[in-house]
């Protein structure tokens, strides 16, 4: 990779977990009624055919990792668990009253924060409470995020008995220096232990989350982390680019200096080295920052063009409707997005009023719906196409002109009715999506909103 390409294209840019991206939602005019109408329409169109997905946000962590960009609340008090589960079940009750028929659940993902902060009793109460009002789709996928430092064998067994077959563990990096800087001491044997247990119990997809570009992380740390990871043979891997966004209120990214964080070419090199080491062990790059072995369903989904991307990243199965439960969760009805109150107190207060705790959202325009499909195609298939009747929009010729320079740089190929991202262009998918992002172009951010694309 040449230095100039990275310097040229490393700009702040969205990670495109949605289009429009959250800072570009038109909050004005969005109401709870619009949210209700659109999710009910989506439910009617899709529940029987494919079922619905649930994302449940469990925000508590015992200790703050100072690299983390997720919505979390740090506490050691476990008496927060029960009221939180009660609130999520109340929220689910409000949704079930609005659904015209019994929901069929295709996917559940427990994210966080730290789902394994919760006791097995409370997790059982949560899942049973959810399922008591629903049917389960025949080919359902239940998954959760486990923290290697507090996931017990009992957590894994209990969730397995409730139907969970996928788990992802937060690993990040194995070197002591990096772990100290990100305030996350996590020895290899903790990860090895939970990985073995999960396999023994029968989980069919075990994933590890790694991050490159962390403070003080050098090439030798990446090599060591990848080698250790390979020795445990997870089925999937996320290899995320560290998103340094210390300006986001309350996210707690602190304790190291901006200079301690590898940037530009140095950062990209960490990725390239990691990627090559993974390729040697049969891990294929799937979309942005994800890798899978050929036997994993994410690989098949990628090969068959069925990969989908949403707020959690990539998924192998897609439903039109995804309801996000819990504080700060985002729901997606395909026609609209809605986000719940971010603070736990505000989330509780809204539920006490018997209201869906949505505080902002966006109703997608015709143009948004088309651009969203192009962005999904690029992020999930490294290519997109159109014709006069499908996926065409007025500004498309302008977008194509915009992409010429990237074509000259060898990042993509422009055909009559399609663009195809080249191998060289894969690190720059976010930049390619930005050419389609008309909302970003019409109103450039006044302050930095997004992490750097490389
Ligand atoms: C498990 C933690 C979460 C990860 N993503 C989300 C959670 C709860 C959900 C989420 N991620 C982002 C948004 C904002 C919506 C958007 O702009 O599309 C939401 C609701 C994007 C995002 N994720 C991270 C950052 C810093 C941002 C915003 C700024 C940006 O786009 O750069 C950090 C981060 N969180 C997760 C990952 C994997 C990750 C960075 C690689 C997981
Ligand atoms: C859910 C997963 O998200 C990743 N994650 C959390 N915060 C960040 C960030 N700022 N940058 C990159 N990855 C992050 C971690 O790898 C975690 O395990
Ligand atoms: S990385 Fe996981 S455990 Fe650490 S603060 Fe973020 S959500 Fe909590």
Automatic annotation (TrEMBL):
Q: What is its EC number?
A: 1.3.98.3
Coiled coil: which residue ranges? Answer: none
What cofactor requirement does the entry state?
[4Fe-4S] cluster
State a single Gene Ontology molecular function.
coproporphyrinogen dehydrogenase activity
> Localized where?
Cytoplasm
UniProtKB keywords: 4Fe-4S, Cytoplasm, Iron, Iron-sulfur, Metal-binding, Oxidoreductase, Porphyrin biosynthesis, S-adenosyl-L-methionine
Give the family, as the similarity comment puts it. Belongs to the anaerobic coproporphyrinogen-III oxidase family.
Which pathway does it serve?
Porphyrin-containing compound metabolism; protoporphyrin-IX biosynthesis; protoporphyrinogen-IX from coproporphyrinogen-III (AdoMet route): step 1/1
Q: How does it assemble?
A: Monomer.
Reaction(s) catalyzed by this protein?
Answer: coproporphyrinogen III + 2 S-adenosyl-L-methionine = protoporphyrinogen IX + 2 5'-deoxyadenosine + 2 L-methionine + 2 CO2
**Xref: InterPro entries:** Aldolase_TIM (IPR013785), Coprogen_oxidase_HemN (IPR004558), Coproporphyrinogen-III_oxidase (IPR034505), Elp3/MiaA/NifB-like_rSAM (IPR006638), rSAM (IPR007197), rSAM_sf (IPR058240)
Cofactor binding remark? Binds 1 [4Fe-4S] cluster. The cluster is coordinated with 3 cysteines and an exchangeable S-adenosyl-L-methionine.
User: CDD domains this protein is in?
Assistant: Radical_SAM
Tell me which PANTHER family the record gives.
COPROPORPHYRINIGEN III OXIDASE, OXYGEN-INDEPENDENT COPROPORPHYRINOGEN III OXIDASE
Q: What is the lineage of its organism?
A: Bacteria, Pseudomonadati, Bacteroidota, Flavobacteriia, Flavobacteriales
Official protein name in the record: Coproporphyrinogen-III oxidase
Protein species of origin = Flavobacterium luminosum
- What class does this enzyme belong to in the EC scheme? oxidoreductase
Q: Where is the Radical SAM core domain positioned along the sequence?
A: 46-280
């Amino acid at each position: 990779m040449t230095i100039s390409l990275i310097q040229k294209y490393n700009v702040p840019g969205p990670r495109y977990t949605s289009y429009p991206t959250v800072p570009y939602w038109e909050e004005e005019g969005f109401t709870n009624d619009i949210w209700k109408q659109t999710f009910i329409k989506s439910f009617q169109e899709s529940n029987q055919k494919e079922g619905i997905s649930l994302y449940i946000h469990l925000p508590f962590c015992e200790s703050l990792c100072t690299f983390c960009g997720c919505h979390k609340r740090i506490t050691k008090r476990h008496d927060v668990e029960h009221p939180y589960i009660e609130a999520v079940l109340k929220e689910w009750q409000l949704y079930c009253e609005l659904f015209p028929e019994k929901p069929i659940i295709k996917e559940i993902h427990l994210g966080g924060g730290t789902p394994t902060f919760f006791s097995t009793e409370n997790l059982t109460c949560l899942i049973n409470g959810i399922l008591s009002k629903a049917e389960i789709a025949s080919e359902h996928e239940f998954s959760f995020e486990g923290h290697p430092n507090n996931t017990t064998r009992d957590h894994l067994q209990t969730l397995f008995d409730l139907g969970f077959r996928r788990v992802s563990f937060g690993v990040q990096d194995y070197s002591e220096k990096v772990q100290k800087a990100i305030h996350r001491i996590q020895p290899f044997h903790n990860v090895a232990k939970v990985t073995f247990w999960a396999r023994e119990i029968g989980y069919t997809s075990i994933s590890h989350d790694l991050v490159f570009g962390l403070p003080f992380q050098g090439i030798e740390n990446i090599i060591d982390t990848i080698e250790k990871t390979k020795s445990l043979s997870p089925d999937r891997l996320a290899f995320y680019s560290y998103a340094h966004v210390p300006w986001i209120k309350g996210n707690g990214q602190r304790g190291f200096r901006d200079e301690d964080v590898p940037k530009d070419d140095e950062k990209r090199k960490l990725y390239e080295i990691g990627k090559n080491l993974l390729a040697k062990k049969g891990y294929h790059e799937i979309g942005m920052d994800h890798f899978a072995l050929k036997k994993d369903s994410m690989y098949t989904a990628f090969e068959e063009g069925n990969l989908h991307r949403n707020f959690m990243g990539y998924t192998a199965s897609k439903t039109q409707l995804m309801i996000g439960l819990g504080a700060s969760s985002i729901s997606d009805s395909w026609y609209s997005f809605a986000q719940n109150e971010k603070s736990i107190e505000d989330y509780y207060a809204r539920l006490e009023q018997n209201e869906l705790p949505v505080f902002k959202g966006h109703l997608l325009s015709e143009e948004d719906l088309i651009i969203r499909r192009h962005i999904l195609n690029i992020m999930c298939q490294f290519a997109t196409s159109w014709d006069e009747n499908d996926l065409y929009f007025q500004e498309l010729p302008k977008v194509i002109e915009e992409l010429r320079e990237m074509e000259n740089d060898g990042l993509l190929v422009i055909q009559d009715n399609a663009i195809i991202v080249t191998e060289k262009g894969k690190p720059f998918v976010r930049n390619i999506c930005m050419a389609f992002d008309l909302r970003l172009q019409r109103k450039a951010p006044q302050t930095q909103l997004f992490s750097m694309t490389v």
